[in-house]
Write a structure and sequence with these properties.
Length: 155
Protein backbone atom coordinates (compact mmCIF):
# COMPACT_ATOMS: atom_id res chain seq x y z
CA UNK A 1 0.00 0.00 0.00
CA UNK A 2 1.26 3.47 -0.89
CA UNK A 3 2.23 5.90 1.86
CA UNK A 4 0.45 9.23 1.62
CA UNK A 5 1.76 12.42 3.19
CA UNK A 6 -0.77 15.23 3.61
CA UNK A 7 1.08 18.49 4.27
CA UNK A 8 -0.68 21.65 5.34
CA UNK A 9 1.06 24.89 4.44
CA UNK A 10 0.30 28.42 5.50
CA UNK A 11 0.88 31.37 7.75
CA UNK A 12 -1.84 31.54 10.42
CA UNK A 13 -0.94 35.19 11.07
CA UNK A 14 -2.01 36.13 7.52
CA UNK A 15 -5.70 35.18 7.81
CA UNK A 16 -6.72 33.00 4.82
CA UNK A 17 -3.09 32.16 4.09
CA UNK A 18 -3.45 29.75 7.03
CA UNK A 19 -6.22 27.72 5.35
CA UNK A 20 -3.89 24.79 4.66
CA UNK A 21 -3.18 24.42 8.38
CA UNK A 22 -6.87 24.78 9.29
CA UNK A 23 -7.77 22.04 6.81
CA UNK A 24 -4.97 19.82 8.10
CA UNK A 25 -6.27 20.11 11.68
CA UNK A 26 -9.82 19.28 10.61
CA UNK A 27 -8.71 16.28 8.56
CA UNK A 28 -6.68 14.93 11.48
CA UNK A 29 -9.91 14.61 13.48
CA UNK A 30 -11.16 11.91 11.06
CA UNK A 31 -10.21 8.24 10.98
CA UNK A 32 -7.58 7.43 8.35
CA UNK A 33 -5.73 4.26 7.34
CA UNK A 34 -2.21 3.84 8.72
CA UNK A 35 -0.83 4.67 5.27
CA UNK A 36 -1.73 8.35 5.84
CA UNK A 37 0.49 10.85 7.66
CA UNK A 38 -0.57 14.44 8.36
CA UNK A 39 2.20 17.02 8.66
CA UNK A 40 2.39 20.73 9.42
CA UNK A 41 4.57 22.27 6.72
CA UNK A 42 4.44 25.70 8.35
CA UNK A 43 4.95 28.53 5.89
CA UNK A 44 6.76 26.11 3.58
CA UNK A 45 10.15 26.83 2.11
CA UNK A 46 13.14 24.59 1.76
CA UNK A 47 12.32 22.64 4.93
CA UNK A 48 9.72 20.86 2.77
CA UNK A 49 12.51 19.16 0.80
CA UNK A 50 12.93 16.25 3.21
CA UNK A 51 9.16 15.67 3.25
CA UNK A 52 8.97 15.29 -0.52
CA UNK A 53 10.83 11.98 -0.61
CA UNK A 54 9.35 10.48 2.54
CA UNK A 55 6.09 9.32 0.93
CA UNK A 56 4.88 7.62 -2.24
CA UNK A 57 2.19 10.27 -2.68
CA UNK A 58 2.25 13.86 -1.40
CA UNK A 59 -0.79 16.11 -1.06
CA UNK A 60 -0.24 19.78 -0.21
CA UNK A 61 -3.06 21.84 1.30
CA UNK A 62 -2.53 25.55 0.69
CA UNK A 63 -3.99 28.90 -0.29
CA UNK A 64 -3.51 29.63 -3.99
CA UNK A 65 -4.15 32.61 -6.23
CA UNK A 66 -5.57 31.46 -9.56
CA UNK A 67 -7.72 34.55 -10.07
CA UNK A 68 -10.98 32.84 -9.11
CA UNK A 69 -13.56 33.88 -6.52
CA UNK A 70 -12.56 33.45 -2.86
CA UNK A 71 -13.38 29.98 -1.62
CA UNK A 72 -12.94 28.16 -4.92
CA UNK A 73 -11.18 24.83 -4.37
CA UNK A 74 -8.62 23.63 -6.92
CA UNK A 75 -7.08 20.15 -7.23
CA UNK A 76 -4.05 20.03 -9.50
CA UNK A 77 -0.52 18.76 -10.01
CA UNK A 78 2.71 20.75 -10.29
CA UNK A 79 2.90 19.79 -13.95
CA UNK A 80 -0.47 21.39 -14.62
CA UNK A 81 0.70 24.61 -12.98
CA UNK A 82 3.97 24.73 -14.91
CA UNK A 83 2.09 24.39 -18.18
CA UNK A 84 -0.04 27.44 -17.26
CA UNK A 85 2.39 29.37 -15.04
CA UNK A 86 2.19 32.62 -17.01
CA UNK A 87 -1.54 32.81 -16.27
CA UNK A 88 -1.44 32.36 -12.49
CA UNK A 89 0.24 33.61 -9.38
CA UNK A 90 0.00 30.54 -7.22
CA UNK A 91 1.95 31.22 -4.06
CA UNK A 92 0.69 33.35 -1.18
CA UNK A 93 4.00 32.91 0.66
CA UNK A 94 7.46 34.36 0.32
CA UNK A 95 8.51 31.22 -1.59
CA UNK A 96 7.19 29.31 -4.53
CA UNK A 97 6.16 25.75 -3.68
CA UNK A 98 6.79 24.80 -7.29
CA UNK A 99 10.39 25.97 -7.09
CA UNK A 100 10.86 23.72 -4.04
CA UNK A 101 9.34 20.80 -5.95
CA UNK A 102 11.59 21.47 -8.98
CA UNK A 103 14.65 21.67 -6.75
CA UNK A 104 13.69 18.38 -5.08
CA UNK A 105 13.32 16.78 -8.49
CA UNK A 106 16.81 17.93 -9.48
CA UNK A 107 18.14 16.34 -6.28
CA UNK A 108 16.05 13.20 -6.88
CA UNK A 109 14.31 13.88 -3.56
CA UNK A 110 10.73 14.02 -4.82
CA UNK A 111 7.78 11.67 -4.57
CA UNK A 112 6.61 10.57 -7.98
CA UNK A 113 3.03 11.65 -7.24
CA UNK A 114 2.37 15.18 -5.97
CA UNK A 115 -1.07 16.74 -5.76
CA UNK A 116 -2.00 20.20 -4.54
CA UNK A 117 -5.36 21.14 -3.11
CA UNK A 118 -5.58 24.90 -3.09
CA UNK A 119 -8.21 27.30 -1.84
CA UNK A 120 -8.62 30.81 -3.26
CA UNK A 121 -8.16 33.20 -0.31
CA UNK A 122 -10.25 36.27 0.36
CA UNK A 123 -8.01 38.05 2.86
CA UNK A 124 -4.29 37.50 3.40
CA UNK A 125 -3.76 40.63 5.49
CA UNK A 126 -2.14 40.40 8.91
CA UNK A 127 -4.48 38.90 11.49
CA UNK A 128 -5.56 35.59 12.93
CA UNK A 129 -8.39 33.35 11.78
CA UNK A 130 -9.72 32.69 8.32
CA UNK A 131 -12.33 34.89 6.62
CA UNK A 132 -16.02 34.23 7.06
CA UNK A 133 -16.20 33.25 3.38
CA UNK A 134 -13.76 30.36 3.91
CA UNK A 135 -15.12 29.52 7.37
CA UNK A 136 -18.60 28.99 5.89
CA UNK A 137 -17.18 26.55 3.31
CA UNK A 138 -14.96 24.48 5.64
CA UNK A 139 -17.31 21.49 5.80
CA UNK A 140 -17.59 21.43 2.01
CA UNK A 141 -13.81 21.70 1.64
CA UNK A 142 -13.27 18.81 4.05
CA UNK A 143 -15.81 16.63 2.25
CA UNK A 144 -14.16 17.20 -1.16
CA UNK A 145 -10.62 16.81 0.21
CA UNK A 146 -11.48 13.60 2.07
CA UNK A 147 -12.94 12.18 -1.15
CA UNK A 148 -9.78 13.11 -3.07
CA UNK A 149 -7.54 11.62 -0.38
CA UNK A 150 -9.49 8.35 -0.20
CA UNK A 151 -9.31 8.06 -4.00
CA UNK A 152 -5.51 8.13 -3.77
CA UNK A 153 -5.45 4.84 -1.87
CA UNK A 154 -6.34 3.08 -5.13
CA UNK A 155 -3.27 4.44 -6.96
Amino acid sequence: MSTIGVIGIGNPLRRDDGIGLVLLQRLQMQQWPDSFSFLDGGAGGMQLLHMLSAFDIIVFLDAVHFGEEPGVLHVFTPEEVHSNKAQIQSSTHGFDLFDVISFAQELDEKSSHIHIIGIEPEDVSFGEGISQTLQEKLDDFIEVIATVLRSLTTQ
